[in-house]
Amino acid sequence: LLDGRRMTTAITAVIPLDRRYQWQLLEEFEEVSRAVVSSTLLAAIVQAALAGIGFAVAGLDGVFLLTLLTFFGAMIPFVGAAAVWGSVSLYLVFFTQDTWTAAGLALWGASVVSTIDNVIKPIVLHGQSKLHPLLALLSVLGGVGALGPIGIFVGPIAVAFLQAALTMLQTELDTLAHDQQAAGLVAAAELRREPDRG
After folding, report:
1. Residue 103 half-sphere exposure, CB side, CA atoms within 13 Å?
2. Considering only CA atoms, which of 56, 116, 58 is closest in space to residue 82?
3. pLDDT tens digits, one per residue of 3-50
4. Using an 8 Å Cβ cutoff, are 148 and 141 in contact?
5. Is the Cα dihedral 22, 24, 30, 32 positive or negative?
6. pLDDT in tens, 138-175
7. ∠ CA 156-160-163 to the nearest 5 degrees?
8. Looking at residue 113, what DSSP letter applies?
9. Is the separation of the CB atoms in 48 and 68 below 8 Å?
10. Crossing angle between the packed helical segments 99-108 and 82-94, to the nearest 10 degrees
């Protein structure tokens, strides 16, 4: 925090890339990082709220505590909200012998609570960054599949960097084509002037 700006300046000085592109990549990183954190928190809040509704309808005691546990569980990949509503469903089956309530809670958890983050994260990532919603979803799922829990952050950032790099490449190719076209026009004008001189 103290030397961040100085470190950034030192690092950008040694990277063999145009300074404007370096800052573009840094802005992309900051934008996508904020979007990933926001989407994770919002998805956890919505999952906890929906799970809390299910716990209340099931008539359970300690709904607030279970909702809070669902919130924290939803932020942990591979644990998720299912760790809480699944445990509660098993408790209802084996300890209270309430099979119908357990089945209803499990159905609610599997069909709504645990799937809503696949809707929320792409929407938030698309809204706060320039990623297409489908690309955002695939980057999160692919990142988690390839890298585990850290893939939630690395996947979207890698895709955003690739998208930025392709945009930079297109800009450079357009500039190069424009320069070549201008050079061709100058050369053609020079050739037209040659006979006039003779």
Report:
1. 4
2. 116
3. 767 777 777 777 777 777 777 777 777 777 788 888 888 989 999 999
4. no
5. negative
6. 777 787 777 777 777 778 878 877 877 787 778 778 87
7. 140
8. I
9. yes
10. 170
The pTM score is 0.68
Cβ neighbours around 170 below 10 Å, total: 10
Contacts of residue 54, defined as CB under 8 A and 6 or more positions apart, other chains included, come to 85, 105, 108, 109, 112, 113
Closest CA to 77 of 131, 22, 32, 40: 40
Amino acid at the residue 76: I
Please answer whether residues 112 and 70 qualify as being in contact, where contact means their C-beta atoms are separated by less than 8 angstroms: no
Q: How far is CA 128 from CA 38, 105, 123, 125, 184, in A?
A: 9, 33, 9, 5, 43
Buried b (16+ CB within 10 A) or exposed e, 82-111: bbbbbebbeebbeeeebeebbebbbebbee
Please tell me the distance from the alpha carbon of residue 144 to that of residue 29, in angstroms, as a whole number: 18
Helices in 95-150 by DSSP H: which ranges?
Answer: 99-108, 117-128, 133-147
Indicate the residue type of 26.
Answer: L
Rg of the chain, C-alpha, whole Å: 27
Angle at 88 between CA 82 and CA 90, to 5 degrees: 95
Q: Which amino acid is at 75?
A: M
Tokens of 102: 């357990």
Q: And the tokens for 64?
A: 């607030």
